[in-house]
Each structure stands twice: as structure tokens, then as C-alpha cells.
Design brief:
Two copies of one chain form a homodimer. The first copy, chain A, has helices spanning 4-18, 30-37, 41-53, 83-90, 107-112, 152-156, 159-166, 185-190, and strands at 57-60, 64-67, 94-104, 121-130, 133-143, 171-182, 198-208, 213-221, 228-233. Chain A is of the alpha+beta class. The structure holds a DNA duplex.
Chain lengths: 237, 237
DNA sequence: TTGCAAAACATGTATATACAAATTATAATC
DNA sequence: GATTATAATTTGTATATACATGTTTTGCAA
């Protein structure tokens, strides 16, 4: 919260969520916002661009910044939201079981993360219990040269919080793949499959701000409890 | 192709795809690009912002614009790409079967699209055949007041091309949901399910640039042929 | 040669101006 | 009153400048 335009963005997000600006209506004009926040138009425009990218508004030339109806959007799994953030937003009771927390040498994963073939990786296997059912199985591989120490306690609470806030690593972007695959013996052991013979698999390669790949995650979901919601802008060809 | 920064963006995308700039290396500095394209730094920065948003580069302060490795990204289903664009990019033989093309009045869909309760909607049901197998079932609802005429020929080739290029409608953004559901009798009729009893369902609400909702699409995929690839930047909270 | 400080370089933020283009409000005319 | 022309409003693009902040290179000194 130090950049002016990010601050303005957050303030406007809060106002929209409070219902200060009704969906379908418009925000104050850029000129008005300049006066209100005592700043230049370009700074306001940067804040509005952020709002637009995250699906809060649609800018219409000559009219203004139309507020979009985010109610139907439900929760966005998109954008690298962690399990903890997610379940907190859903307001459901949740629990994490740590099944494995070891240092391994997996050549294939190393190759994918562009790190030394023989270097150590943290392997973390966790199941996620929501409403009394274990419905998500997370397998994480993290570069040990970047995350030196890892405890069961950290794995149980929030890995992302530890990495970002304690270690100060700058998680920046990820490429993500969603497919459906048959269940494995591991799925059967750690999940309450409830008769399902397939799971939704989300594989993510997570990168830091300096473009070093540092984490590979495989998140396996029971199909009936899986939902992915996305807001996408069409990039003109 | 009229805006300077969009033109520069496309030129740089082409150069990256040609391998002009190797993954892991950097683009020329903003200062250099200014000279090269004979423009101001802000204009260059707008082009670079587009590259960053679409996963081509990562800007690192003090270093430069690092080119990302998009090879592993495979095809992005994200960002509202149509079936035709998709299969063309995959280079596979494909075929579209039109099963229904009618004008209907569906109150529920009307409500979702914020249009008059009794207004007419185009209902289009199509199956998609790739490599000899019918693996996708698309059900589209379009507002007839915006898309007056629709023919079987258009539905067979490309709806998006017709809407954008022929009608000149400005498709701007969509909210999209991915879930897994049991197969319906319709799925069994129009798809080669190959024993599968569940399908991946993508529901999309598509909006125009002036924020009018005009299309609802339900795309039902056979699980083993489904893949969703995404590039996501972490929005700092 | 090594180590450190300074300079040069690269991107990030904030501000200002000018004009273009689309929409809306106003005024004038029939 | 309805239509049309004009003006005001609002967002989009392009350019320019100043300074901040992080990285790399250079050069001086021990």
C-alpha cells in the first residue's frame, strides 16, 4: 500500500463491494476522481485499468466506467488464490492433513523447474478437508535452495503466506493446466472419493518476479466439488 | 491495427514467436525500443504491458523485459478463443454438426442475459468432431435483437467470425465457469462418449464492449479430451 | 588482483499537456 | 413539438519531463 494508484484501486474496490456504486451505473468521471484523490488523470487511469483487468468495471468511451455485476462471478479460483484464502472466503470449516513433508530429488520436476538436476526439492503432500470430507489432494514441489526450512506447522496453515510474508519471496505468475484423469491409489488413500473414478487435476508452475521457476503443484479435486470461475477479456487479434 | 502501441505489441509478439528474442533473454530496453519505433517511452510501455499481461514477458526492474518460455504453455483455451481458432491452431481435422438452429423464448436464459422476458433468442446446438470423434457439444443462446439473421452455414463455419467481422459487434469480456457434471441424454445422443459417464461443462456469459450481455454458451467436453491452459498473474492483495 | 564506490543504465511512479473520438446535454430551427 | 446542429462531457492516445529504485558496469584505490 505505497503506490498511489494501487491505493486508489483498493479504495475503489472497497467502495464497489460496499455497494457505493451500483452495478450498471458508472463511477465518477476520471476528472472527478482526480479532484477527489488529488492526483493526476494518468494515475487515476492506472487505477481504473486495474479495476478493468479484474472485472470490476468496463470502460466505455464517452460514457464512463460502468460498474459490472460481480455477484454472479462467485469466487475466482483464477489468479493463484491459495486454498486458505479460498476456504476463508467461502466461510466454510476446513482442515489440512499433512501426509508427507520430505526432501527429494526428482529429476523430472527439476527439469521442469529449470534447476540443477541433483538439487533438493521439498515434497509436500496434503489433503484438504471441507465440511468433513477430504476432497482435495495437493502435491507440492518447492526448490529447497529458495525455501530452506519447512515445517509441518507451516504446511498445515498456509504455505503461500509463509513464502510471501515470512520469506519475502515475490510470487508473480503461473502457468496452469486443468485436465481430468483417472484416480490413482494415492487418491483412493487420501481422499473420500465417494464412488468417483476420476479427478480434476490442476497442474501449476509457479514463478517468482525475477522469472525463476520455484514451485510445481498438482492439485487433485473430486469432480463434484470442483469449480473454476474465470473472468476473461478478449484480446483482439 | 491503428493504435501505435497495439501495432508495436503485435510486431513484438511476432518477433518473439519467430525466435528473434530467445526465452530467458531480454527485449531491447525501453529506451532502445523508443528509438527503434520512433515513439515515446509511455507508448512503448503500453505495448510492453500488453506483452506482460499475455504472458510473453516479465518486466524486472533494473534488468529489463525478460522473454518467457511460451512453449510449455501449449494452447490457451483461456481468453475466449473460439472452437474454430482453436482447432486451426491445433492443426487437426475438425467438423461441426448443427443439430438445432431455432428461435426460442427461454425465461431463465433471458434473465441471465438481462433482456426482456419474452424476447427471442437464437438457440444453436452443435457437436464438434475432431479426428473422427464427436467430443464437444456446444449449446449457444444469442439475443436475436442483436443477431438478426443466422443461418446453418454460419453456425457450421464460425459464429464468432460472423458476429465480430460481419455484424461488427464488439465482443469484449466473459465470465466463465468450469465444472464436471453427469452426462445427459442429449450428451449421449450427440457425443461419442466412449464409456464416460461425466462431462466437463464450461458455461460462459459473453458481453459486448458496452456491457450488454448478449450470449450464453454451454460447452460440454468429453473428459479425456478436455484441457484448459491458463496464464495467471498474482494480484497482490 | 580484489573490493568498493561511483557512474551508467533500466524500469517504476507521478505529473502535465494536447488532441482525437464517442456520448450526452443544450440550443436553435423548422 | 420534433429534428438538427452545436457545445460540453468523458474516455483514448501520444508525447514530455522529473525523479525514484533496482541492476550492471566501470573505474579507482588498497
Amino acid at each position: 500500500m505505497k503506490n498511489k494508484y494501487v491505493e486508489i484501486y483498493h479504495k475503489l474496490v472497497k467502495d464497489i463491494q460496499k455497494g457505493e456504486y451500483a452495478a450498471g451505473g458508472t463511477l465518477p468521471s476520471e476528472h472527478d476522481l482526480c479532484a477527489r484523490f488529488e492526483t493526476s488523470r494518468e494515475t487515476i487511469r492506472k487505477a481504473l485499468t486495474l479495476l478493468s483487468q479484474n472485472g470490476y468495471i468496463q470502460k466505455v468511451r464517452g460514457k464512463g466506467s460502468v460498474v459490472l455485476d460481480r455477484d454472479k462471478f462467485e469466487f475466482p479460483v483464477s489468479g493463484l488464490t491459495s486454498f486458505k484464502e479460498l476456504s476463508e472466503r467461502l466461510g466454510q470449516s476446513f482442515q489440512t492433513h499433512v501426509h508427507e513433508l520430505t526432501l527429494v530429488k526428482e529429476a523430472e520436476v527439476c527439469r521442469q523447474l529449470n534447476c540443477q538436476e541433483g538439487s533438493h526439492l521439498w515434497k509436500v503432500v496434503r489433503s484438504r478437508e471441507i465440511g468433513g470430507e477430504r476432497i482435495i489432494l495437493d502435491k507440492d514441489f518447492l526448490r529447497q535452495d529458495l525455501v530452506h526450512d519447512l515445517t509441518k506447522d507451516i504446511a498445515e496453515t498456509s504455505l503461500y503466506h509463509y513464502i510471501e510474508n515470512e520469506l519475502g519471496l515475490d510470487i508473480s505468475f503461473a502457468k496452469k493446466e486443468i485436465v481430468v484423469e483417472p484416480v490413482t491409489v494415492e487418491d483412493e488413500e487420501f481422499l473420500d472419493l465417494n464412488g468417483h473414478d476420476q479427478v480434476v487435476v490442476i497442474r501449476s508452475y509457479v514463478y517468482l518476479g525475477d522469472t525463476t521457476a520455484f514451485q510445481f503443484t498438482e492439485s487433485r479435486h473430486r469432480p463434484d466439488k470442483f469449480q473454476f470461475v474465470d473472468f476473461a477479456r478478449r484480446t483482439k487479434v
